[in-house]
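Ticket #4471: structure output looks truncated?

Reporter: J.K.
Steps to reproduce: submitted the chain below (124 residues) through the standard prediction queue, then opened the result file.
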Amino acid sequence: MRKQLEKIGNATRKRYRAKVKKFGLKRPDLFKDYWQRTMLLTNLVDVDNNATVTDHLWFVVGKTLSELTLRTGDIISFNARVGEYTKNDNGVWVKDFKLKNMSKIVVEQRTTRPLIEGEITSAN
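Returned output as attached by the reporter:
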């Protein structure tokens, strides 16, 4: 469980900074026959006080994130609100916290290494 996110609560939107770790795919539902692109962000920090709020979070890559053509190693900042959800943890449903409604996304630092052939970005 993400204790720092729980402490922040969902009353206000805050600014966060994170590093793009990798991209993946997930099925939104076992009965759906399509996949959604996902993005793993690591080292999520509250920009106001430079405090780490969680070590990682997964996000679905929608239109806005896709248009930024993010790559592994990029550092982004964004506004978001804390949300609550339940997840299955070894057969037990537990409450956990996430960041939702991402907005005002800014790429603060782009990775300088060349793109490797076949490398996955937020755009492909």
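Triage note (M.O.): checked the attachment and the full token line is present. The chain is about 10% helix and 55% strand.
Status: closed, working as intended.
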